[in-house]
Design a protein that fits this description.
9 helices, 279 residues, 7-stranded mixed β-sheet, two-stranded antiparallel ribbon
């Protein structure tokens, strides 16, 4: 379900340095040592605020809150609805998926769905607030979100992946606060998972609604395999469906592992050389 509101921009930056570790020379949390960590349930609002800001002007984000039947809504009401969507999505991924962040104040956030996981069980839908969006969105906004957008993404993912539909990594959302762009945060959040996918032999999947980003994602090994459209608005919104095949490689020295929802995540520090906006 990932979209992109702005391009990921390429620019160089100094090599990253390791965070401070314990007196024994080893960090108690490998994610914290290397900048990337799992978002806890009680910080989902801060993580969602990051994504909401990153996608403030995204065409897909506006697609659900700028509809013919919301013309009387104030900008603040639209923003609150936008925040509710993001907070529900982040919390759902805290419960059943994988929500990652980097930076001291949630400067960038990525929502990944690991192989064999789903946020669509009834309990997660209600606990996260996703089920409540049926009543909180306007009638047209709800139709676009639940009757057009989600079914289109599900159907397309199933068609593209086939038997691998439930055995792949899915990048649902990734975004960076405007003030934190250009520091390589998006690259860190992507490569922490693509390395794990390479090690386990899993494909990675995403959708992007920004026509600039596919060229950037190709640098991570993604290729466009299909194009789809949202068509209930004044003009169609195009999305690129992209797939990344696993790359066979030896796991480098310095790799760390962390267990999350039964998934062993391998992480390592990189010298990030890609700046980032949102996906």
């Amino acid at each position: 379900m990932a979209k992109s509101s702005r391009a990921i921009t390429i620019q160089s930056m100094p090599k990253m340095t390791e965070s401070s570790s314990s007196s024994s020379g080893r960090s108690s949390n490998p994610f914290q040592e290397h900048g990337v960590r799992v978002v806890r349930n009680n910080e989902h609002r801060a993580a969602a605020d990051c994504l909401a800001e990153a996608f403030r002007d995204d065409d897909v984000a506006k697609y659900f809150v700028r509809t013919p039947d919301t013309q009387t809504w104030s900008d603040s009401k639209r923003w609150e609805m936008h925040l509710k969507i993001m907070r529900s999505l982040v919390l759902a991924h805290c419960y059943k998926g994988l929500a990652l962040t980097v930076g001291p104040h949630h400067e960038a956030v990525a929502l990944w769905m690991p192989p064999g996981k789903t946020i669509e069980d009834r309990l997660t839908m209600f606990r996260s607030g996703l089920a409540l969006l049926n009543w909180q969105l306007s009638r047209e906004g709800n139709h676009r979100f639940t009757k057009e957008f989600l079914p289109l993404l599900h159907r397309t993912k199933s068609e593209v992946l086939g038997d691998l539909d439930n055995n792949s990594w899915y990048l649902v959302y990734i975004g960076t606060k405007p003030a934190a762009r250009g520091k390589g945060y998006a690259k860190m959040l992507i490569e922490h998972v693509t390395r794990q996918a390479d090690a386990s032999g899993h494909v990675c999947y995403l959708e992007s609604s920004n026509d600039i980003n596919p060229a950037i994602y190709r640098k991570f090994g993604f290729e466009t395999v299909k194009k789809i459209q949202l068509t209930r608005g004044a003009k169609p919104i195009d999305l690129d469906v992209m797939l990344r095949q696993p790359v066979s490689r030896d796991i480098p020295q310095g790799v760390h592992e962390i267990e999350h929802h039964g998934q062993t995540m391998k992480t390592t520090q990189t010298s990030a050389e890609i700046g980032d906006d949102s996906h």
